[in-house]
Amino acid sequence: MKAVHLLVLGLSLAGCATVQPWERDVLARPEMSLDANPLDAAIDDHIYFSKEGSSGGRGFGGGGCGCN
Amino acid sequence: MKETENFQTTLAAAACALLGTTLATRAAADEADKRWAFDSSLLYYGESDDRVQDISAMLSAQRSFGDERTLAATLTADTLTGASASGAIALDTPQTFTSPSGRAVYTTQPGDVPLDDTFLDTRFALNASWTQPLARLYTLSAGLGFSTEYDYTHLGANLSLARDFNKRNTTLSASVAWSQDDVDPVGGAPRPLSQMLDVGNSANKLGSDSKDVLDLLVGLTQVLGRNTVLRVNYSYSDSNGYLNDPYKILSVVDPISGDTVTRVPVGEGPTGVYVYESRPDSRTKQSLNAEVKHAFGARVLHVAYRFMTDDWGIDSSTAEARVRWPIGADSYIEPQLRYYTQNEADFYRASLVNGQALPQYASADFRLGDFDATTVGVKFGHRTASGNEWSTRVEYYQQSGQVPGDQIIGNQARREQYPDLRAVVVQFGYRFGL
Fold it and tell me: Considering the entire predicted model, what is its pTM?
């Protein structure tokens, strides 16, 4: 837990200026979500899992298929 | 009233953006005034030269129960047909193979890379998850997954815990997933490195098998400024059990000519010597994935990079970029670009040499080979007056690979050994609330 706090502290010191709640207008836009299009992401993961030697990374992508 | 609603929606969306949004929480925020939110997709995936064709439908539903508690479920149906490369090399003469069922033969024309055209499958998958705050700053998510197809069954479970720090500018998450998959290949799983036999002879087939996979993921989401958010994930995946592709084979070739050693079938059967592939029964993969979203006014840039390495000797890099470009108030266009490159697995062999001792592991599966792949695509989306959104996405995918020079023997040099794979993806999406 100490390491976690150090990491968080490190990030705040490393120029990651704290954005205040009332400054969230842009980050709150739906398209700014890192998971804005989950079905697109799932489809891509599935195709690439079936055709390439790698999978996952974003989340638990690609599992549950006999295609690889 | 309208403004109040908008304000509430914005506030809820802001809260979710800080939580390292999941599908469920984001949708709950977007549709704050709706109890159910749906996302649907219809997909066509088609490879050139009559290879794999897939039509897939997905429906995702979320129900919010207030207090950021959400239930989400996704149902997928896939129908696959077409042919896929068997792993055998091309020859100047016709080649006949026994089909996976062991009950028929198929023949490949001279010069063609052998494709097994008996490929046909229908797959159904169901995933469900529950997300809720656990305490102030903590979010818990738990999910179950199930999928079934003719020769394969998957059962999985996952659990994820996220903690916000630093006025919710930083989110750390840890997730674990476990799955148990049963493989019941058509005609039985062949004994690794055993020869393809004549029709009706199943002495080398062993029946069904299974594997289990443990995935661990640690993620950091960091707001870098008013317009920028970063996420970095480290993931570790450990697979154990039956990891072969039961339908992949290797040609056994003459050490001088490089041509497949011929064989005279008794009745119907293979005209050359082919053996079934053999992969290790464990695989450990590690990957580091970083992605950034940055807003330039109304435009949003998304870039991502992933490095993956595994103990089969494969290293891969993936780079992706997308720009969401608004057109008017209700539409957008989003060009997408992806580049992928990997080197071959330690045990990748284009063919096996007759007379030499068989290696413990060998596979000629192109997906374990040395190749690059590029995807170019564009998506168009439009929000309707009622607040629903439809979209269309078109992508072109191309793989170009090569057999390592020291694995090319004799006549193989003048024949196509690693054909390009070209595929088109067309996807229609519709998001709506009830």
Answer: 0.89
